[in-house]
Amino acid sequence: MDDRSPPPRQVLAGGVVVTMNAARETFSPGVVVIENGGIASVGPGPAPARRDGDVVVDCGGHLVMPGLVNAHTHTCMALFRGLREDAPRDAWAAYTLPRQDRARPEDYYWGTILGGLEMLQHGVTTVADRFGHMDVIAPAIHTVGLRAVLCHTLYDVDRPLELDRGRALIERWGVDPARRVHAGLGPHAPDTCSDRLLRQIRALANDTGARIFIHCAQSAPELAALRARGHQGAVRCLRDTGLLGPDVVAAHCLYVDAEEIRLLAETGTWVAHCPASNAKIEARVAPVAAMLRAGVRVALGTDWAPTNNGMDLFDEMKTAGLLGKVGADDPTVLPVARLLEMATVDGARALGIDAHAGSLEAGKRADVIALAMDGLHLQPWHDVAATLVYSAKGQDVRHVWVDGRWLIRDGRPVHVDVPGLLDETARIWRRLRAGEA
Ligand SMILES: [Zn+2]
Predict the structure, then answer these.
(1) For residue 368, what is the enclosing H or E element?
(2) Is the Cα torsion angle 50, 56, 58, 62 positive or negative in sign?
(3) Can you give the pTM of this predicted structure?
(4) pLDDT per residue over 159-172, tens digit each?
(5) Cβ(105)–Cβ(133) under 8 Å?
(6) What are phi and psi of 429, to 5 degrees?
(7) How far is the CA of 110 from the centre of ligand 1 (A)?
(8) Which of 93, 164, 170, 361 could form a disulfide with 183 if both were Cys (CB 3.0 to 4.6 A apart)?
(9) Ligand 1 centroid vs 70 CA: distance in angstroms?
(10) pLDDT tens digits for 346-377?
């Protein structure tokens, strides 16, 4: 699909343009010009003189902003949304995993189309995704049209290591952050990877230039397993194995002490904060206010649908704000402007793609969303960041462009057969349920 001839110039005119550029400029009205998949210009005022062949998109009544960046998810697991609720981690996994094991690779393909399209439709244009079955998931992400960095999950404790599959993903998709879909390295977690494997992954990252995505300090049993191996904490384990650094994104970081927060900050390690999933499965909130105060770099993720259950990054900004205030016992922390950065520019920095995405600036790729501003729940507009974080929903998103391709128009995908997708989802679940008591 990327091989087609360049589309005509698109002029998005008449909207309120929230750039998220370094000066955090907003233009009302503003114009975004998209050419050859990239942003040719962003600025105030009316549309430029019309050229032959221009596609002029009337964005009057819309807020135009960069697409959101989901820094931690497992898109295909949309297929397992709503299976189990109100259960501790172990009971939840015992219920879900046997059904996952019965699924076929093609089910994960359709799960990815389902979850990926849901996110795209709701304004997420970039994801960091890691799972098995990347041979079907990567093409599905590519088909949905998302920007993505993808990792094949690597373990070697109690499971066979599939390093060859991790390497094959990197060979197939490359690690160049300029590529819309590219690969990273995905060690599962400190307790499910031996120290030897973690060190091997650091060496491989240095050799290939791949970024590293890992779960970290997500459960009490993880910490107990690490203590048995001589590590006093998950972040300390990452330090001891060379896995802290600005090229590492550590998801969750729920169980970290002050010294580990200092380590994360000092090394420039990114945290992918997933507050809804953490609350639901672990009944815990990461000490995100303390992390920000210490200078830790934080992006935002939805984690997977079974523990969220939607993958709406607008909802996640709100949840991060609310739980962050409760966790810190301080209503002044997690200001709205900061939450908006976590879901846009900082998400792009975490994924190493900030030269290409995360803000509306000339020279970046055109990952753009436009929200209808007329919903009653959005009125009146006083503070744009406050409205986006605490009032807006993914369903307010009406138009989405990724790499300049106008994929969602008036809320509808133009490139995926939605009734066919719903049929596939129903068919898969008829088969997975067959034989269950
Ligand atoms: Zn995860």
Answers:
(1) strand 368-372
(2) negative
(3) 0.97
(4) 899 999 999 999 99
(5) yes
(6) -75, -30
(7) 19
(8) 170
(9) 12
(10) 999 999 999 999 999 999 999 999 999 999 99
